[in-house]
Write a structure and sequence with these properties.
single chain; about 230 residues; Rossmann fold; 2 domains; about 50% helix; about 25% strand; binds S-adenosylmethionine
Length: about 230
């Protein structure tokens, strides 16, 4: 079974012998792949929707993975018992929804050993959330697939906080390792904000002026980080 690069990066973060819950599993590909590679002792593929869960169930049966992977219809962590798994994957959702899901059952967060998160947006908030909940960021990966940027953030229990705002904004690990994808992303952001500034040229209302100032501040942050990459 071949995974997309995004899903492969997520699967690579799972430690051998783990018990994994994939929240919002949809197709169920990540737990199925992990089962086929002999990497997990237990998988729970969970989704809020009947349709996605039926899809996951069908795929799990097709790959004869039902002895290791079970499916559960659940809103977030609702149907996950405390201590049932050591690893939680939540991918392909907004950062705020991921946060809401994890906050929904903080008892689970206290027993879990690994959080593998791929927020579609609000990555900055996800990093802050992990630190606030007593997780260190052990790894970050940034990839570009079919024109979209994806960030995969892995958290493990531990105390950590970043002093620099840019580390929350762009990811300290990605900055430290001089990620070429982060560099490309920041260049894209700079030109996107150039376009915004050009488009609002000539409109001198207070709101527009404020927007322009914010864009310039953001661009200056981008330019500073670019020097380190
Ligand atoms: C875009 S898909 C992502 C699927 C897969 N995780 C991936 O990354 O390819 C989002 C999935 O999350 C599910 N979902 C949305 N809100 C949820 C919630 N509160 N609890 C569980 N699943 C949820 C949706 O039904 C959908 O199947």
């Amino acid at each position: 079974m071949d995974l997309s690069r995004r899903l492969q990066c997520i699967a690579d973060e799972v430690l051998p012998g783990s018990a994994v819950a994939d929240i919002g599993t949809d197709h169920g590909y990540v737990p199925i792949y992990l089962y086929l590679k002999g990497k997990i002792r237990k998988g729970i593929a969970m989704d809020i929707g009947e349709g996605p869960l039926a899809r996951a169930k069908k795929n799990i049966q097709m790959y004869e993975a039902s002895s290791v992977i079970e499916t559960r219809q659940s809103d977030g962590l609702e149907k996950l018992e405390i201590g049932e798994v050591d690893t939680i994957i939540i991918a392909g959702m907004g950062g705020l929804l991921i946060q809401q899901i994890l906050e929904g059952k903080t008892g689970v967060l206290r027993t879990v050993q690994r959080l593998i998160l791929q927020p579609q947006r609000d990555q900055e908030k996800t990093r802050r959330f992990l630190h606030k909940q007593g997780f260190k960021i052990s790894n970050e990966q940034m990839i570009k697939e079919e024109g979209h940027y994806y960030t995969i953030i892995t958290g493990i229990p531990g105390q950590e906080s970043y002093q620099r705002e840019v580390d929350y904004l762009f990811g300290r690990k990605l900055i430290e390792e001089k990620s070429p994808i982060l560099k490309e992303y920041i260049c894209d952001q700079l030109s996107k904000y150039d376009t915004i500034i050009n488009n609002i040229q000539g409109y001198e209302t207070e709101a527009v002026q404020k927007k322009k100032e914010e864009a310039i501040v953001f661009q200056n942050i981008c330019k500073e980080v670019l020097q380190w990459l």
